[in-house]
Every structure is written in structure tokens, then in C-alpha cells.
Design goal:
This protein is mainly alpha-helical. It is 75% helix and 0% strand. It folds into 2 domains: 92 residues, Uncharacterised protein YqeY/AIM41, N-terminal domain (Hypothetical Protein Yqey, Chain: A, domain1, Orthogonal Bundle), CATH 1.10.1510; 48 residues. It contains 7 helices and no strands. Helix 1 packs antiparallel against helix 2.
Length: 156
């Protein structure tokens, strides 16, 4: 099964072949961010034993999407709609490489299961529940946005 990095590399080659300059530019930015992480790991002698993982690549992609979403808001507030649309298009290209996010119902079911499986009873168990959710669904669930829901369920 190809890694996320392999899929990104193949998509970059395909975009170059198709002459899709906008997509090439975005995918090059992603590749550069991944290479930067790999260089940082190489400096700590980690890369030989632990190459860049799919989770690390996913984190890079999520960060890049958040940056673009912030830019979209800023551009819309300043009335620069054409730049906002460009940022939105870039985020869409990057998002295509991430797993489909969970629906609200799926997330609620996952939270209930994590609370039951970890035998959480109070807010003191928040870390256990969040850790379990991250391990099981980290790529499909925005951990910062579900925190308040987990808190509410544990506090109630």
C-alpha cells in the first residue's frame, strides 16, 4: 500500500504531466514542507530508523489547510474575494489527500465508545478519552473541535 507521501509524489508527477501549473505549485509546497521535516529529523539521526510517517505528513497537510482557512477569512474580511477563492482552491487540493472527516453522528458515536472503553467517569479522565480518540480516529477527527463535546459528556 503506497504511503501518503508516495501518493503526493505521484499526484505531483501527474500534475506536471497534465500541465496543471496551479496544482503543481501547491503540491510542491507540500513536498517542500515534508522535505523540511525530513531534514530536521536527519539532523537528529532519526530519519534512518524512522522516515517521515503518514501521521507526520497528515499533520503537515492539516496545518497547511488551517493556514489557508485563516487566509480565506482574512481576505474575505478585507473584501479581496479573488484571493480568498484562490486560497480555498488550494485548501481543496490539499484536503483531497486526507481521509474523509467523520460526520457529527460518527464523531458522537466514537466519543461514546471511547468513554465507555476507557471507563471514564469524570473530567479527570479527559486525557485518557482524548488519547484513545486520537489513536483510533486521529486522521478523521479534529481533536481540538471535539474537546468541548468530550468535556461536556464527562462533566455531565
Amino acid at each position: 500500500m503506497p504511503t501518503l507521501r508516495d501518493r503526493l509524489t505521484a499526484a505531483l508527477k501527474r500534475a506536471k504531466h497534465d500541465g496543471d501549473d496551479d496544482r503543481v505549485c501547491i503540491l510542491r509546497l507540500v513536498a517542500t514542507a515534508i522535505n523540511d521535516l525530513e531534514l530536521a529529523k536527519r539532523g537528529s539521526a532519526e530519519v534512518a530508523e524512522n522516515p517521515v510517517t503518514d501521521d507526520e505528513v497528515r499533520a503537515i497537510l492539516e496545518r497547511m489547510i488551517r493556514q489557508r482557512q485563516d487566509s480565506v477569512r482574512a481576505y474575505e474580511e478585507s473584501g479581496r474575494l479573488e484571493l480568498a477563492e484562490q486560497e480555498r482552491a488550494e485548501a481543496d487540493v490539499i484536503e483531497a489527500f486526507l481521509p474523509r472527516p467523520m460526520s457529527d453522528d460518527e464523531a458522537a458515536a466514537a466519543i461514546r465508545a471511547a468513554i465507555a472503553d476507557s471507563r471514564a467517569e469524570s473530567l479527570r479522565d479527559l486525557g485518557k478519552v482524548m488519547g484513545l480518540l486520537e489513536a483510533r480516529h486521529g486522521g478523521r477527527m479534529d481533536m481540538t473541535s471535539i474537546g468541548p463535546e468530550v468535556r461536556a459528556r464527562l462533566g455531565a
